[in-house]
Amino acid sequence: MTKWTPRHEAPEPLEGNVVATITGGTVIWFVLFLVQIPFYGWFRDHGHLWWVWTCLAGGGLGLVGVWYVRKRDAAIRRAAEGREEAAGSAAR
User: Fold this and answer.
1) Which of 4, 40, 54, 81 sits a CA distance of 20 to 30 A from 71?
2) What residues form the membrane-spanning segments (predicted)?
3) How crowded is the C-beta side of 69, counted as CA atoms within 13 Å?
4) Residue 88 and residue 80: Cα distance in Å, rounded?
């Protein structure tokens, strides 16, 4: 059996507004957590308490994600500015 190899190159990755996407997801996790708080007793009685804590964990991990993608975007901008400065000084 031979290994399958693609016959075309992979497309470039899509770059969008990653910070907004992660922030939106984080907000959704926290909203879901807050919506479930009034029903805490029901979740506990039916053995679904992990749903509440999953939403809180998703929101907390989302905060880490927001911090990470903001740092990533800043690093990408700094690298682009450095390349522009290097190109500008080389043209002189």
Assistant:
1) 54
2) 21-43, 49-69
3) 17
4) 12
State which amino acid sits at residue 16: G
Confirm if 37 and 52 have CB atoms less than 8 A apart. yes
Does this model's pTM top 0.85? My answer is: no
Q: Are 43 and 52 in contact (CB under 8 A)?
A: yes
Residue 49 structure tokens: 């308490």
- Say what angle helices 49-91 and 18-36 make with each other, to 10 degrees: 170
For residue 85, the number of C-alpha atoms closer than 13 Å in the C-beta half-sphere is: 6
Q: Let me know: does 29 contact 53? Beta carbons within 8 Å.
A: no
Average pLDDT score over the chain: 91
pLDDT per residue over 3-50, tens digit each? 777 788 888 888 889 999 999 999 999 999 999 999 999 999 999 999
Report the alpha-carbon distance of residue 4 to residue 31 in Å, rounded: 45
